[in-house]
């Protein structure tokens, strides 16, 4: 620490850099620290660990012939329909929604940083927590369950796509509304739950239909209303994720900051 | 820096109404009672919220139009929340990095020295008292040496000694050719910041200029009252005769606008006078109460 | 500014005034809290956005009943018989609405008081902690009964009006008794469950997520273990989502979905859950430090 100097801190224009390196990394690190609360990680980690336990039980209890089908159905109803969207909701909606609500967003907003970069940093930080918490336990559970290779890769691929898409959607939702958890749950239960089960065409409007099609295709197990071809099942959710991040950036531009 | 006919409303609530002013280098104090719209004016100035009508310009540009303009704006907001898990140093450094400064660590150290945070800078913000939080907020607002420094109530939560050093610091910031705008609802503090003040009351700009000049204007200017009384013409003539009014304007058979240089005496004598004349007095209402009450509130603290 | 003569001058006494009316006591305090909680949950006297979820849930819960009755009225009797829904199976159509309603409203009723410090004010009134919990749980059960008891009643009334209902009075009365028992069972079950989750956190969003995860998650896991891994069917007792609806089928005397399980132990298991939840809620509230 030196003694106080003149108030013209860094006033030399030449001292200003035009370079942009480092801001993305700094923002990413900041969002990691905002999201990394112990309660959230431990609670959702325990939830995810259930899939590992179920995998172990399947291997111990079932004939190899049944392991594939039982695991695939479980990965669909528990992993893709519940754990992936809910864990994504808990992290992604808090990434920008938390700072917007407590009034700290202004310290990131009032900076010469592109809004897309802000949105991407928040998205990347959310995924950094969500992907391991969801994909790794499901993948390990799939391996332990004794299900065939196809089911393991199908589980990992579909869960990865699910968390990427849901994180994007809930990143935007967190900025859109203050009660993002309630609205996010309503979306998961009603929209993803009802619409995805309503019929073949209606199901195309729910992310869940795409991820379970992917899972069904890789594992070869028939799942209800899992009829989307693999190429679409992989591409459409990722497009949704990209659009959601872009919408988040747009929302950041037009939002009112407190 | 300019506001041109700016209004801002939230639903039915008009927070800022038709406000126009320009800012010049030096310290400008934004004064007004709580809820007058000070924070909204500052948020509009920093581009945090768009005006419902009118234009806000910072260095000739729309503060919401382009993120690059934020290089020239430093804001210390009113709310206390910061990233509590960061140390003060990391928090200020984050601002320096996000402003793309070449030597973020040097700039951070300068800013932290300037606000005299000292060794506390290596502590987490979550452990800080209000006064220290205010200084961290100020440090992140000036680390990139902006042209416009916006400080929302920087003196709240400070003890008298800290107030003094904050006031000095703000005054020094204003000497370097920057525009510094500081909001406050306590006049005596603002008096010490410097010369220019903007007074805002109920979302409207009530006065603008040098504090002492405004005060003199207030004292010199004839005050106006609306009077409802029987036989208004006779009462008006009597008021002038008694020296209680410098001007009288007849609005109707029982309505009168009175200009007076001695509002206290006018208030004291209007009732006995009308009684002597045998006219029933119905109503006496000051017309400049807005500005006057704000000023009385500010100057006399009530 | 009005001016009055010196004779009229007076200084208004604006000071503290004692309340001299009757004091209504704990019963009235509980009733007031009960009514306020009901209104809050149903979005009455609140802004339009708080009415969205109650209205949405009401539509989801009652619309199928209206449709079934309509179908019965329009198609010939012989065909209509086949299209009729059993009263107990009706819950199958509205489980999503029930869970959503529980997750959306109970945290709002329970967590908000602790987060805002309102609980301290309530306890400053002649309300004990137990009295507070009694009023709150009664309110929650009543609100939930709107979706667990109302729709089957509508179905019964509708069917009776189009001559597709039970034979009155004997069969009808028996059915009504079963209906009330079933509706209250589901309402009480979710009251206990949701209040237990809510007492663990004062953040509404977290509690909502906990309720949804607890019910749907346990259903998925139990189904995997019992249907998939062929473990003991008694694990069904840990299926927090399907257990109450299985009880409903038993109350109506309909074919069970889980025939391996005897009725009485199943009821005892459910009762054990409810008692455990009640004990958890009560001890949490007894130990709670009320600061504001």
Helix-strand layout with pairing:
The complex is a heterotrimer of chains A (258), B (302) and C (292).
Chain A: H1 23-35, H2 38-61, H3 64-102, H4 106-109, H5 115-145, H6 149-176, H7 180-198, H8 200-203, H9 207-219, H10 230-254
Helix pairs in contact in A: 1-5, 2-3, 2-5, 3-5, 3-6, 3-7, 3-9, 5-6, 5-10, 6-7, 6-9, 6-10, 9-10
Chain B: E1 2-10, E2 13-22, E3 26-31, H1 38-46, E4 53-57, E5 73-76, H2 88-98, H3 104-114, H4 130-142, E6 148-152, H5 160-175, E7 179-184, H6 187-193, E8 196-201, E9 204-210, H7 211-220, E10 223-229, H8 232-241, E11 247-252, E12 255-260, H9 263-277, E13 281-286, H10 289-300
Parallel strand pairs in B: 3-7, 3-8, 5-6, 6-7
Antiparallel strand pairs in B: 1-2, 1-4, 8-9, 10-12, 10-13, 11-12
Helix pairs in contact in B: 2-3, 2-4, 3-4, 8-9
Chain C: H1 25-42, H2 48-74, H3 77-83, H4 91-116, H5 118-124, H6 129-148, H7 150-161, H8 170-198, H9 204-228, H10 243-252, H11 263-287
For this entry, give a set of tags:
heterotrimer, B: 302 residues, 4-stranded antiparallel sheet, 10 helices, 27% strand, elongated, C: 292 residues, mainly alpha, 11 helices, disordered N terminus
Protein chain pair with the most extensive contact, residues per chain = A-B, 40 and 51 residues
| Count of separate DSSP helical elements of chain A | 10
Q: Sketch the major β-sheet of chain C.
A: none
- Derived from helix and strand composition plus strand pairing, the structural class of chain C reads mainly alpha
Q: What's the gyration radius of chain C in Å?
A: 24 Å
Kindly report how far apart the N and C termini of chain A lie. 33 Å
Q: What percent strand of chain C?
A: under 5%
Helix content of chain C: over 70%
Low-pLDDT parts of chain C are 1-5
Order of helices and strands of chain C: HHHHHHHHHHH
Number of helices of chain C: 11
Q: How would you describe the overall organization of this protein?
A:
The complex is a heterotrimer of chains A (258), B (302) and C (292). The radius of gyration of chain A is 21 Å and the shape is globular. The two termini of chain A are 33 Å apart. Chain A has 10 helices and no strands. By secondary structure, chain A is an all-alpha fold. Chain B contains 10 helices and 13 strands. A 6-stranded mixed beta sheet of chain B has the order 5-6-7-3-8-9, sandwiched between helices. Chain B has a 4-stranded antiparallel beta sheet with strand order 11-12-10-13, covered by helices on one side. The radius of gyration of chain B is 24 Å and the shape is elongated. Chain B starts with a strand and ends with a helix. Chain C is mainly α and 292 residues long. Helices cover 71% and strands 0% of the residues of chain C. The longest helix of chain C is centred in the middle third of the chain and has 29 residues, at 170-198. The two termini of chain C are 41 Å apart.
